[in-house]
Amino acid sequence: MNRLLLALLPLLLAMPAAPARAGADVIVLQSTTSTRNSGLLDHLLPKFTARTGIEVRVVAVGTGQALKNARNGDGDALLVHARARELAFVAEGYGVLRCDVMYNDFVIVGPADDPAGIAGMRDAPAAFARIAAAGAIFVSRGDDSGTHVKERSLWRLAGIDPAAGAADWYREAGAGMGATLNIAAGMEGYTLTDRASWIAFANKRNLALLVEGDPRLFNQYGVILVNPARHPAVNFAAAKAFRDWLVGPEGQAAIAAFRVKGQQLFFPNADCGRAAQGPFQRTRPRPSGS
Q1: HSE (CB half, 13 Å, CA atoms) of 77?
Q2: Domains in the chain, ordered, with CATH?
Q3: Which of 95, 158, 239, 273 yields a CA-CA distance of 20 to 30 A from 222?
Q4: Cα–Cα distance, 89 to 93 (Å, whole number)
């Protein structure tokens, strides 16, 4: 790693987020399919660009792929939702200045006639166990996304590894949230989805929201800057301006104001202090309705 860059890094991190000249800067944001498909980024980014003149180009992939891309230097900032992996990304020296940004929750959806009998449950691992016992179709994203990471953690809590067992009821889509929901609708199967994607999803057909409210379904999003000491070509000043706007009063208010079908999809909870960098304990309330 370049010693000069390492010496300059503390100064770079302390740089104020001065507004950029109109059209002067472009950053690449590695983000998730949920932030794009829900319409959140279409709501936020024009406001940021109007304020700073910085254009944000989005690569919308699963969190695992976003982190991989950023490790390769393909991007200036990330907006993702797999906290343990985000912290590892920072600890390994690929990212800096991670902040909590906003949250919502995951829900389990499935056919309205509910062959596994999970409707109304508030214990997500127990609901997964019922789906497995019934041999009911479950469609996994199977793409190493934040949602897929959460799903696998719930299977572990249930004491089940359907992928290892090659269960014929367990189907891996290898796709984003919208495509996975479409497959689940077509197969009349169950799946795990973030609430924002579910609310914005138009092709619900016979699917219904069946399980919500388990604290283990909490879904935290974080913003991270790619470390300029690791990748000197990143547009660090513009990326930091984006991060500071997103966790500042204007960005947080814009997140809170975003609605789809009259419902708030994301809840701002900016935290850039030590609590945002260490082991996570959910102390904030779940979204209304969960």
Answers
A1: 26
A2: 3-104+220-276 (3.40.190.10), 105-217 (3.40.190.10)
A3: 158
A4: 7
